[in-house]
Every structure is written in C-alpha cells, then in structure tokens.
Amino acid sequence: MGVEGKERQRDLESGAQVLSGNMGKTIQRLRKAYNLSLSELAEQSGVAKSIISQIERNETNPTLATIWRLSQALDVSIEGVLASADEEPFIEKSSKADTPILVSDDGKMRLAIIGWIKTVEWLQWYDVQSEPGGVLDSDSHQRGSVECLSVLEGEFEVEVGGVTQQAKAGESLRYRCDRPHSVRCIGNTPGRATMVCILKAAVMD
C-alpha cells in the first residue's frame, strides 16, 4: 500500500471512530428517551445486549445490519441514528474541484462521487451523467449489496444476471449489485441520475 493508500486508510479509520462515537451517544440518548433498558432494546431489535452496550461505550464499529435493526427498534431513520449527538449545527461543504470523478470505459458516462468519506465503506452515492449510449459495466460488490438508480433526466437501463429493466425520469430501479451488472443510458438524449450503493445491505442480510 502506497503513502496515499495509507493516508486514505487512516482517514477511513478516523472517520469510522468519529461516526461510531456519535452513534453510540445517539443510540443511548434515544434508548433513554424511550425509557428502554438495554435488555428491552436487545429484545426489540434482535441485537445482543452486550453488543448494544459496546456500541454505546464506543467499543465497537457495528455493521449496517446492526444499525438498521437498532434504528427500526428506536423508530428512527438510519440517518437519525448516525446523526451527531452534539447540539452544534453541522454543515460540511465540498467544492466542485474536490469532488472525484469516475469515467466509464467507453468515456461516455461520468460518476461524481458525492458521498461522505465517513460512510464510504458501507454507503456510497454518485451523481451520474451520461451521453446517449453510455455504458457502465461493474463487477460484483460485497455479498448482499444493493444499488438504487434514480433517474432525473433521460432514460436508463439496468441489467443484472440476465434480467433487464428500464426507467425514465422520475422512476427508480433497485437491484442486487453483488453480481456483475451494467447501467446503460438508452435513447437519443443525455441522461442523468443519482446512484446509491448500500454495501452489505441490511435488507439482504
């Protein structure tokens, strides 16, 4: 691993620690707000009492499946669980120049990485822009991963495991991406979409 790779790994680890720390505080605050004991939350969520205790004490980094189960039991969105427990407002801005761009092999499709570095290991999202006929071929992601393509302009087609489905502006396609898959911009006009990839998705756990 090169110097840049090591620095990126440190950033990911640091981000995970901060995220986990805030999450532990938030879960504890929500649990107490609902007047739930550790045992009661464990029973309602299906997450072991010892794991919940470790999360609240910032002693472990939970999987997305665990976060999802706790969010369901606490009747809050995953975003709510991951939100900072601090009362300080939080706004972070990234400039256009700081936004990494991925380009498909045919050079016709561009994916701007607009996701947050702290969630990149389990949640990624992109702004997709494509010329007519652009194709993005992707290898399998982690087992259980799910991708969502929400079309904003034009028309796209997704193929997974020999199954093909199309979507126009205002429509979305959700599909397992833990196998080879392709996204194509079909028709005669440029296309634009938002793509979100949930790695090791709780819904497929």
H-E order: HHHHHEEEEEEEEEE
Q: Please provide the count of β strands.
A: 10
Which architecture name of the largest domain does CATH use? Answer: Sandwich
Gap from first CA to last CA: 31 Å
The shape, in one word, is elongated
CATH H level of the largest domain: which superfamily?
Answer: Jelly Rolls
Return the structural class: alpha+beta
> Radius of gyration over alpha carbons?
19 Å
Helical run tally: 5
Unreliably modeled segments: 1-20, 201-205
Beta percentage is: 25-35%
Helix proportion: 25-40%
Average pLDDT rating: 82
Q: What is the CATH C-level name of the largest domain?
A: Mainly Beta
Main sheet specs: 6 strands, antiparallel
- Per the CATH scheme, the topology name of the largest domain is Jelly Rolls
Number of domains: 2
- Please give the order of strands in the largest beta sheet: 1-2-3-10-5-8
Summarize the structure.
With 205 residues, this protein is of the alpha+beta class.
